[in-house]
Amino acid sequence: MDLTRSDREANLHRYYRMEIVPGLFGEWGLVREWGRIGWPGQMRTDWYATEAAAKDARFNLHMAKAKRGYQ
């Protein structure tokens, strides 16, 4: 899932990417990457016991980012 936020007046051009990936031992990871569009960003992986828990976390992050103007 890719989200972007742009505001020309504030020179703000950001992206936020989320992906759910399976782990080697049955866990599920929520990989997040964020930064300025056109530049390498930061990455973080949070691990969850079930795919449903990872999807719930992704949904909650998506809603939080939508409140901040990401589309």
Automatic annotation (TrEMBL):
Keywords: DNA-binding
Domain WGR: 1-71
SMART domains in UniProt: WGR (SM00773)
Coiled-coil stretches noted in the UniProt entry, renumbered to this chain: none
Any one GO MF annotation of this record: DNA binding
Name assigned to this protein: WGR domain-containing protein, predicted DNA-binding domain in MolR
